[in-house]
Amino acid sequence: MKNNMISFLGALLCCFLWGSAFPCIKIGYGLWDINSDETWKVICFAGVRFFLAGAFVILFACISKKKLIVPRKDEWGKILLLSLFQTIGQYVFFYIGLAHTTGVNSAVVDSLTTFFAIIIASLVMKMERLDFRKILGCVLGFGGVVIVNLTPQGFTFSLLGDGLVALSALCYGVSSAMIKRYSDKHDTVLFSGYQFLLGGTVMTLIGALMGGVGGEIGSPQVTAPAVMMLVYLALVSSVAYTLWGILLKKNDVSKISIFGFMNPVIGVILSALLLGEAGQLGIKYVISLVLIALGIVVVNYEKTEKKTDR
Length: 310
Hints:
The chain has one domain. About 75% of the residues lie in helices and about 0% in strands. It is built from twelve helices and no strands.
């Protein structure tokens, strides 16, 4: 996982899975009769998704190690804290914020996750050095995200909408640094599975208590496609986050987190293909991909250079 090509392919796979979640979530809402503005119902749906993701990760870990995998007493507090940032805080803030802002604004603001991850790892937790290459790579990547979401309506900022999305991005940045820190002494797969399980449970309860389920919403017909889409979304989270955690364990946070700028671009491209919106693709997506690719190369080039010097 420290090999540049392996880490590149692994990070790209994670970004592809997360990118596919954008259109698949929209398809899933339709299959489960959920409107995107029904915030608490969306949170409840996401909670079930993450609970299943946690169950899948734990099941995989148990099968691979041929025994029941349970955290030690001293690990439960760390898992709960990680879940608070990585799943509960990140997604509750994101979905509530998304209900009060535009899709363009949320995509741009949410891309700050990469900035926060690198800054927290470098300046707050002192796990690596923040240099010019990392800053330049972030600026290039962020520029690519802004271009892909550029519209004639422009960009405005609202505290309740964009502010909460930014808070969600901060939660992700904190969780990335926490995963790196915890991975030194703890099992990354174990932490990933149980934090999803706890986070999914809390989100489901929050959504249900706030009216996300009940007679007023109605009972959607449970169909095979609806169940299969929910299972796929759970697998997206379980596979992507677990692999991402392993990559963070073996590499600098900046080297892996910079790939996060690919998520919105891949999401837009897959949305265009899966949702029949291919006609909306244009030159700005090419420019965006080039900028993000340059950002990834800039951040990772220095490590290659150092290895060559040795």
